[in-house]
Design a protein that fits this description.
Layout: E1 7-12, H1 16-31, E2 35-36, E3 45-50, H2 55-71, E4 75-79, H3 85-91, E5 97-98, H4 104-114, E6 138-142, E7 144-145, H5 156-160, E8 164-165, H6 168-180, E9 185-189, E10 204-207, E11 210-213, H7 216-223, E12 229-232, H8 245-249, E13 256-258, H9 266-272, H10 278-291, E14 296-303, H11 310-323, E15 327-332, H12 350-373, E16 379-388, E17 391-395, E18 407-410, E19 420-428, E20 433-437
Parallel strand pairs: 1-2, 1-3, 3-4, 4-5, 6-9, 9-12, 13-14, 14-15, 18-20
Antiparallel strand pairs: 7-8, 10-11, 16-17, 16-19, 17-18, 19-20
Length: 439
Amino acid sequence: MAQEAPRVGFVSLGCPKATVDSEQVITQLRAEGYEIEPDFELADMVIVNTCGFIDSAVEESLESIDEAMQQNGQVIVTGCLGARAEVIRERFPSLLAVTGPQARDEVMQAVHQHLPAPHDPFLDLVPKQGVRLTPRHYAYLKISEGCNHRCSFCIIPSMRGDLVSRPIDSVMEEAQILVDAGIREILVISQDTSAYGVDTKYATRFWRGQPLRTRFLDLCRALTQLGVWVRLHYVYPYPHVDDVIPLMADGSLLPYLDIPFQHASKRILKAMKRPGNQERVLERIASWREICPELVIRSTFIVGFPGETEEDFQELLDFLDTAQLDRVGCFTYSAVDGAAANQLPNPVPEEVKQERYHRFMLKQQEISSQKLQHRIGQQMNVLVETRDDGGYIARSYADAPEIDGLVHITTDDELVLGDFCQVRIDDADEYDLYATPSR
């Protein structure tokens, strides 16, 4: 009688980069014969991939570890919070192992030590594209690890190290495998996507017989050959970003840029150790839109950073008015353990942070609502995500999964999940669109 496969519970927290780390561990587990068990009480072991970027993420990670310990007791912790092993060990001394991020081999070592798995080499347990935690129609493509920036509010480099770019042929081979498996949208991620290849001195590799330099523009051009949506995330606005805008204008790349501006005040950006010249940024945004009028720009900002005055904050609101960004996220400053910004003078009181956050979101809500009203009457190609009461939920090119808006489709027709559909936009609110299939 065949031995029952060991069962592993898995919790994946944090950003898309952490999701990719989780996918790599789960793929290896499945390749070695382990089953993934959603019920902790039925699992032989639980792995928790943590996030440690801001206080709320740390608390969520600690709560997830506590839940796994209560329901199972055999727990391995990995991920960004795992880089601060002493914090975790102090609270949970009986953990089986604690590792940092991007530590598939160390995690598997701990799994092998505490839960050896029989493996039948005659069984093909894993699809060629690996095990994905995203729906079947989109996938994250991580092109590098780490970051060379030393932003004063961020501890990512201390957790994930300096920038290390994957060879471009390896990235393209993975992208091709994803497309061959039926993926309709690739989301390019890293800590600093537009710095891709700088650590390799833009080394030349070969893919499909083509020489490709390991750099941002070459990667974007190569990905356009795959015939799927390609969405760019975590793009710092270096000058060479201008070079990909024509690819968006001609329809090769999705006209969507995720650029973390973080603030608009020159004084606050300097304290954040972020590059930034508001006038130059606004000029470039105008130039990009002139080349590609359909361009959608998403960004994130921090309010309540130490030393932020009402004048600095008003400068940020004025920037929003002028820039007219399409999709925006906002966070109040959180004193992450180990961040240099914690030592800055003049911390902003919590009630002021919250008041500025709400003013910021009201301002952006107004901008978003106005921009979406202009979509009414347009024909749009959308990617159908899931069923909903009265129809389906989809995303347009302007909507990244989980962080942007949605397109709600009202129809009695049968639509194919994970496929494209042409719709007419009938209505809009502050963040979402409402549509019916085009006839």
